[in-house]
Amino acid sequence: MRKLLDGHNLEDRDWLFGLMLQSPLFNPRERGGKVFVLPDYNQSMEQQREMTLKRIQYLSERGVFTGWLTSRGIESELRMLAFIDVLAIFDHSLSIKLGVHFLLWGSAIKFFGTKSHHDKWLRDTENYVIKGCFAMSELGHGSNVRGIETVTTYDSKREEFVISTPCESAQKYWIGGAANHATHTVVFSQLNINGSNQGVHAFIAQIRDAGNLCPNIRIADCGHKIGLNGVDNGRIWFDNVRIPRENLLNSVADVTPDGKYLSAIKDPDQRFAAFLAPLTSGRVTIASGAVYQSKIGLAIAIRYSLTRRAFSVTPNGPEVLLLDYPSHQRRLLPLLAKTQVSQQLLLYAMSFAANYLKMIYVKRTPESNKTIHVVSSAFKAVLTWHNMRTLQECREACGGQGLKTENRVGHLKAEYDVQSTFEGDNNVLMQQVSKALLAQYIAAQKRNKPFQGFGLEHMNRPCPVIPSQLTSSALRNSEFQTNAFCLRERDLLNRFAAEVSQHQSKGESKENAFLLSYQLADDLGRAFSDRSIFQTFIEAEATVSDLPLKNVLGLLRSMYALICMEEDVAFLRYGYLSTNNAAAVRKEVTKLCSELRPHALGLVSSLGIPDAFLSPIAFNWVDANSWSSVKN
Amino acid sequence: MRKLLDGHNLEDRDWLFGLMLQSPLFNPRERGGKVFVLPDYNQSMEQQREMTLKRIQYLSERGVFTGWLTSRGIESELRMLAFIDVLAIFDHSLSIKLGVHFLLWGSAIKFFGTKSHHDKWLRDTENYVIKGCFAMSELGHGSNVRGIETVTTYDSKREEFVISTPCESAQKYWIGGAANHATHTVVFSQLNINGSNQGVHAFIAQIRDAGNLCPNIRIADCGHKIGLNGVDNGRIWFDNVRIPRENLLNSVADVTPDGKYLSAIKDPDQRFAAFLAPLTSGRVTIASGAVYQSKIGLAIAIRYSLTRRAFSVTPNGPEVLLLDYPSHQRRLLPLLAKTQVSQQLLLYAMSFAANYLKMIYVKRTPESNKTIHVVSSAFKAVLTWHNMRTLQECREACGGQGLKTENRVGHLKAEYDVQSTFEGDNNVLMQQVSKALLAQYIAAQKRNKPFQGFGLEHMNRPCPVIPSQLTSSALRNSEFQTNAFCLRERDLLNRFAAEVSQHQSKGESKENAFLLSYQLADDLGRAFSDRSIFQTFIEAEATVSDLPLKNVLGLLRSMYALICMEEDVAFLRYGYLSTNNAAAVRKEVTKLCSELRPHALGLVSSLGIPDAFLSPIAFNWVDANSWSSVKN
């Protein structure tokens, strides 16, 4: 099962876990006879940043990053993605600081740069001799990259670009690595050639030299944050900073020595889209990371609920307790079981979805870019939302213990809260998904051609019919489940298209019509995501031949499908399920819960998080809290 | 409007806000020409604890706590509750450390103790000479107080009680104040007299003397937490600690010098219930505090969204941006407006609910205890859940700025996460609410008497009928709204009673039958809470005669009612609303949003949070982030 969930590079992952366990830099602590690693979050942000840097240097010396930028091919990309998963299991700051350096700065050089840039920068970046950051967002413009206000002009006499921050809202903001450690940055800026704006382009600028700020660079700290305090986010002002002409990353466009602007992509929109490409890899790692954080939370919360229950029957106190305590537990357990078990089960679907996303990403072609964009947007939003919800429920299920930083679950919420808005606000991403689906719909209608792509082929088949009386076995049937998901997506896409066109017929612009239909757009985005995730589950299930495993996966798949139906009110609102059928779904969820409860511990063990990366309450928490443990 | 929301002691509140603004202890900082106060959360927990203590001492010297324990009457209780609201607006640790000292330790002396205890302890407590804590929960037993394992025996020779921690799971856990500052504690313990257990009783024990631990007391730290790091939560072990016989808090039961156990309350269940009474005041302040935190979050998020929008039309950058940026904002705003405005509107209902709860609490009588217990349980759960949701949406609406600690919204989430599980786990509280309603139902049925109490009188009237076609004006009619809430509560109570009795007829115990019906219990708890909160809204509305204000309140009330109907799937699941009517509700919510949007800033200004207690992004965030501001 672990192989199915982790998907790839299991041995590499274990090697890296081991590497972290070997060094005191990862802050090992003994609790109740077991060793746990976790950063000391009681340190000031300044201390946490220094520790993150030291950990990166240790990992770099051990060869963890070898090939991250200089090797090519699916194998090395998967190895890197696996390592990022593993590093994030230890600490989000560690994975983010590395993500900025390798996936933003490094990818920018790789994708926007050409051979001379690769030759000059990639090896030093991989060896962490150069420390890169990625100056895209500004105080006034976050998600709206197109609106950034930094301006770069060209001085043909000196063959240099001149970068400037024209106003306070143009200061670069949230730049990871900028506050303390980065030596270089990619700067996103409007490129103004002879008074004509060519749109957003990317440049390389050095910001520190031997630890000192370079001339005409001003930097300030972003300050204390609710999480990620091990990352030194900073703000940058450019005071007519001069850089050589060669520092324009010129894969998409170039400026000749005498100042002529040249671009292979004539359409400014397409040119701009090309510059957002590295953010796709960001969304892939965020989506995958979200699943691993849910795994940590659930592994801890479920183990705690099982040990806490076991403990209550150990006769330690006066007899009345022994009689009393289990009854109290019985009062709590159904609630816990419902939320925890069902969250856990959703987790399997999320794992398969993340693996699918990683695979289409590493196998990307120019033709698949659009699909990757839409799927990564949808999955990033759904998986990160799901992660926050899972962590919240895990925290509450652990009661007060969930609030102790060393127990991780509560702390992870603050660390990962950023997920839902960075590299694209989730709500905006979901609206973009619906917009993309609508474009497909209009294209298919106009050309009177069948749907192709985004998994919408089911729209070409007759509309599925849901039986009026759903039995238990019907509810667990994958064909019914597929039909229910397809029916919802099809109907919502039809409704959405109709509403948008109705608004347009009343004279609204296309843009406005879309805005006014945002409720249906939300519903549709969710329908698309659920159906796509469900498909990855069906595909993962098909690869398994071991019968007991296949049976459990079948239960998990049904649980995922039925919980989606129970939780999205659209099934009732638009009549895909009658109230009778909805009641049958609700009942079946409870039944599935009890069938899956005996597997809970087994399933938790297959999540692939080593004990040392969980927390004391996941094991013998009485020993971990004993007086003798205080003395250690 | 502010008077309506704050409800009481407006001048006292302003005086206390002013007192905090006068002292450097409250960490004032200038940002963009405005001063803001907020603790420095980048300090280690040790530093934060010392700062909290210093702030308390400052407030104590200024007379803030005068009369909190030594005065009696509604006036002085309301003043205290107002002050707790205000202190929590500055910092949760400050209000919690004070709450433990005054409302837990102080109330225990007051309510469980008798005259000699009052004379001996209350004045020194009020003056903060004695620093008290409240040792109730243990490692092994949190919400299940009855199961605690600490044991106290009586030594009649020396006329002393002997308190002991018999096993590691009996260590007192999460005791606020115990780790560093408390000098005394109330200890909850099983009382064992001559081998017979008399259940849980409360004792006074000294734990520190002139800064040193007392003999036979061991204390350890609970460590770093995800919030509330300014509170020194600790763990206590008692090694046969001897206390004088007089230290039993004897209002409910006593032990004679020669060791006889005497109690006015014979039934151990009732005796135990008497000991939980101080937790009611905890729930009242938690519920009220939750509303104020939502106010902070919304005041910041709404002001930010308004200023951010305003900023986008200032021409700072190249022209393309000027054209481009507003369209991007238009794309975002409907989403923001929907969540923020609707959350804000719910907030008004929550304010009225909290004020109602405070009033029934300060006017409490022995007869109203049961109602206060049920209402405080329901409102504590609903208001704290709502607070977490509001803060999460505010954080996301502020984007990255919501993650900066100085901007408060994101940070408050971690600070207040504890709300949903302390002083009663929310899920457990809601189940207790449904259980209490069921008991009323059974009592009314058995005696064939009308319903009385908990607002269930509507059950005596004929079942309301919802029109099959709801027009806009019908939807905004308070009678229809009341009917919809009553219909749902009535039907769910009937269904719940039927399901429990069906399980019992199949041989399940009453307890088990209740457990198996937990889904209906959840639905019913929510129905009761929404209907009760709605009633407080109607009552608050009735006190207003100013017409424009009354009109706005009418819109707010309709918004609250319709959002409840839109969000609780029970309305569709059980057919209280047809799909057509549900669609009408959804449409009307959108309409109400746009009608209320012009009032947004005005409404925010009436929330009663002084500017200095908000954050830089609520005002001119460009100035607050400018380079000149860095130099300050």
TrEMBL record, chains A, B:
It is found in: Peroxisome. The active site is at 423 (proton acceptor). Its cofactor is FAD. Keywords: FAD, Fatty acid metabolism, Flavoprotein, Lipid metabolism, Oxidoreductase, Peroxisome. InterPro entries: ACOX_C_alpha1, Acyl-CoA_Oxase/DH_mid-dom, Acyl-CoA_Oxase/DH_mid-dom_sf, Acyl-CoA_oxidase, Acyl-CoA_oxidase_C, AcylCo_DH-like_C, AcylCoA_DH/oxidase_NM_dom_sf. GO terms for cellular component: peroxisome. It catalyses: a 2,3-saturated acyl-CoA + O2 = a (2E)-enoyl-CoA + H2O2. Gene3D superfamilies: Butyryl-CoA Dehydrogenase, subunit A, domain 2, Butyryl-CoA Dehydrogenase, subunit A, domain 3. Residues 133-241 form the Acyl-CoA oxidase/dehydrogenase middle domain. The keyword Repeat does not apply. FAD binds at residue 176. It comes from the Eukaryota. GO terms for molecular function: acyl-CoA oxidase activity; FAD binding; fatty acid binding. Residues 479-614 form the Acyl-CoA oxidase C-terminal domain. It holds the Pfam family ACOX. Residues 279-438 form the Acyl-CoA oxidase C-alpha1 domain. Belongs to the acyl-CoA oxidase family. PANTHER family: ACYL-COENZYME A OXIDASE-LIKE PROTEIN (PTHR10909:SF352), ELECTRON TRANSPORT OXIDOREDUCTASE (PTHR10909). This is Acyl-coenzyme A oxidase.
